[in-house]
Amino acid sequence: MRMTDLIAKKRDGEALTTEEIRYMISEYTAGIIPDYQMSAMCMAILLRGMDDREVLDLTLAMQHSGDILDLSPIQGIKADKHSTGGVGDKTSLVLCPMVAACGLKIAKMSGRGLGHTGGTIDKLESFPGFSTALTEEQFFENVNRHGIAIMGQTANLVPADKKLYALRDVTGTVPSIPLIVSSIMSKKLASGADVIVLDVKCGDGSFMKTPEDAEELARNLTRIGRLAGKRCAAIITDMDQPLGFAVGNALEVREAISVLKGEQEGDLLRLCLALGSCMLTEAEFVSTREEAEKMLLDAVHSGRALDKLAEMVSAQGGDSSAVYHPELLPQAPVVMEVPAERSGVVSRIHAEAVGLVSMKLGGGRATKEDVIDPRVGVVLHRKLGDSVARGESIAAIHAADEESARAAVEMLRSCYEFSDSSVIRPPFIRKIL
Ligand code: URA
User: Which of 174, 109, 95, 103 has the alpha carbon at shortest distance from 140?
Assistant: First the structure.
């Protein structure tokens, strides 16, 4: 088999066979097929597409390019969740303990963030002592004993995706549905859960900018997941403004705790109820999403969801007293308010730009080597549709020093737009598939 022939075949719009796809992925992972040939193939796939059989073959070939986690030592049904990423997305910190408190096992591998803010792992590391570097045995034992564990991705999980994603990033081939689906689903399949729930974001703060594109991605993700034998559901949610109020690692943990305490309603809680009810129904714990929501809300109001977070933090070496006393979490020495320059109704918050403010403050990474400052970030006081009078604070900047705080105040101001009339918010949950 020759890679040149396969590139020409896809360029001409033909389907690749299972053997050809397996050959391409194994030789590329082994460093035999060079990046320039794989770049041409990615572009041919982006332009010509792939049918379901090809996408499934590509997903499975990538899944098998490295370690596969066999979760069979964990009793019962195991659930996992994936988000296509957004600003202020602390969903896993709320959703996972809530669902585990209902008795469904959460066995989740998460990544670190590159860009705006940290990933779930970075956020969890705001708890002093918390470790996500679990061995497989510790991971299995924690899920069996506590019903929940979140660990960092093992180094050799889907190595094909690590190479391919880096290549796509610099060759204009990220926005291809077959490539996105195989990238996401290969990692989910290699992580071994039985139930996979996907949160597909659309809008400014995400990489699917329109609801139509987000729905197409969501339909493809769930179809391939089901063809691979998993129980899958997807939710399409709006990311035209940051999720919740906090953007930045320890600040997001504090917000998650407040939702788990039942102190905060709004988009974050609604999203966690929707995702959690998909998980519980797919796992056949209950038969309707309404019953599932009741169960999840009961876990919050009874305090069991918060206790479950504390149990997980403690089982992974962290100081669980910070769950009940969030003031023990790392705190920035400088907090500076951002006064509105005019009166009006918030008509737009550029989510991606808010993420960049947090990153500039030290809350995210520009390169893999950067060290995250868990203390810093932004807390929004006004969201879409809220009114504000000139001089009132629209947000607070949490910074390591006065100079970076002042620079962030200016940057944050330009993230907001105002209108003189009322603003209709688009529905936050656009569809459940
Ligand atoms: N997230 C992934 O893991 N892969 C993609 O291709 C896009 C988003």
Answer: 109
For residues 188 and 239, give the distance between their C-alpha atoms in angstroms, rounded to a whole number. 22
Distances (CA, A) of 5 to 16, 56, 182: 10, 21, 22
Q: Pick the catalytic residue: 10, 22, 64, 82?
A: 82
| Token pair for 269 | 């809680």
Domains and CATH numbers, the chain: 3-49 (1.20.970.10), 78-324 (3.40.1030.10), 331-419 (3.90.1170.30)
CA 209, distance to chain mean position in Å, is: 16
CA of 205 to the centre of ligand 1 (A): 15
Q: pLDDT, tens digit, for every residue of 413-431?
A: 999 999 999 888 888 899 9
Q: How far apart are CA 56 and CA 190, in angstroms?
A: 14
Question: Between β-strands 105-110 and 148-152, what pairing exists: parallel, antiparallel or unpaired?
Answer: parallel
Q: What tens digit of pLDDT does each residue of 81-108 get? A: 999 878 888 999 999 999 999 999 999 9
Terminal CA-to-CA distance of the chain, rounded, Å?
40
What residues does ligand 1 touch, defined as CB less than 6 Å away? 84, 165, 179-180, 183-184
Which tens digit of pLDDT belongs to each residue from 341-369? 999 999 999 988 999 999 999 998 877 77
Amino acid of residue 49:
G
Contact 407, 335 (CB under 8 A): no
| Predicted structure pTM score | 0.91
Give distance in angstroms: CA of 185 to centre of ligand 1. Answer: 9
Is 122 part of the annotated catalytic residue set? no
H-helix or E-strand spanning residue 80:
strand 78-83
Find the catalytic residue in 183, 186, 191, 404: 183
Using the mean position of ligand 1's atoms as its centre, give its distance from the Cα of residue 115 in Å. 14
Pick from 292, 260, 234: nearest CA to 84: 234
The CA distance from 193 to 343, in Å, is 49
* Residues in contact with 141: Cβ distance below 8 Å, sequence separation at least 6, in sequence order: none
